[in-house]
Amino acid sequence: MRKKRITVIGGGTGISVILNSLRKQDVDITAVVTVADDGGSSGKLREDMQLTPPGDLRNVLLAMSDMPKLYEKIFQYRFADDDGPFAGHPLGNLIIAGIAEMQGSTYHAMQLLTKLLHTTGKIYPSSERPLTLHAVFEDGTEVAGESHIAKHRGMIDQVYVTNTYDDSKPQASRNVVQAILDSDMVILGPGSLFTSILPNLMIEEIGQALLETKAETVYICNIMTQKGETEHFTDAQHVRVLHQHLGQPFIDTVLVNVDQVPQEYMNDHEFDEYLVQVEHDFAALASQVPRVISSNFLLLEKKGAFHDGDLVVEEIMKLTSHKH
Known about the structure:
GO molecular function: LPPG:FO 2-phospho-L-lactate transferase activity
CATH superfamily: CofD-like domains
Largest sheet: 7 strands, parallel
CATH class: Alpha Beta
Number of helices: 13
InterPro entries: CofD (IPR002882), CofD-like_dom_sf (IPR038136), Gluconeogen_factor (IPR010119)
Order of helices and strands: EHEHHHHHEEEHEHEHHEEHEEHEEEH
Subcellular location: Cytoplasm
Number of strands: 14
Oligomer: single chain
CATH architecture: 3-Layer(aba) Sandwich
Protein name: Putative gluconeogenesis factor
Number of domains: 1
Structural class: alpha/beta
Shape: globular
Strand order of the largest sheet: 3-2-1-7-8-10-12
Radius of gyration: 19 Å
CATH topology: Rossmann fold
Organism: Streptococcus danieliae
Helix content: 25-40%
């Protein structure tokens, strides 16, 4: 029996939770990571070096690595705010940027780093060149750049991506399309709908591969709504947005958390972009996707609400064993 092939698509902070638990299973993992981040350290490095932003890739690399905690500390170490040009950069971002320059691309840098850090599985940036995310808001305003989109008040109608440094059409990284087509399962999320998941899907070849793949396509719905992105969205609205962006339904299964986040638990200061819990609309979900799995996937830690990777992966493994 060959191992099941699972491809996980999204942004670094969201999907890392799932990847960290998934690598303990006997499956063949590919992570496809968004490259539309233009804020913070990633944004600065991307601007200075015209390279795909390293932050999301760094988080995924660590989630899939079996290296000792000390290495992780080194990689995540962030220079102090008064460190001049180094201020605020995590050491791992500089390592990725340096190796990308040495190897000629972020794609090659990730292939070398996956060996170096003993990662379980493959990691590909969704595109080999930096992308700019554009959001068209419901009032018709258009805003470019992920960090600017987050600050703009109003509801997003749709997003699209462009190559940052020229007018050519965004292309998927090599091997990404094939990985999606060869997968037994493709997992989207968890993560910000408009800024972590959709930037990958709006690369035309990736969107097309998702429509064509025979893989079971699973969407892990967010636990909390996000300010300016998904305010007051139900789980069904998240799915509707994904389907609208690709022009047709393509998700087979949605994982929904039904555990309640205690009212006073969330630290609003720390997680100010998260507003309220995503509400459920099971009738609308059932009309859009063949299968809905609702269970307790909640992990409360550090005053935030997250997915419990092990509980999610338990459901994912059940799904892979039922397949055909």
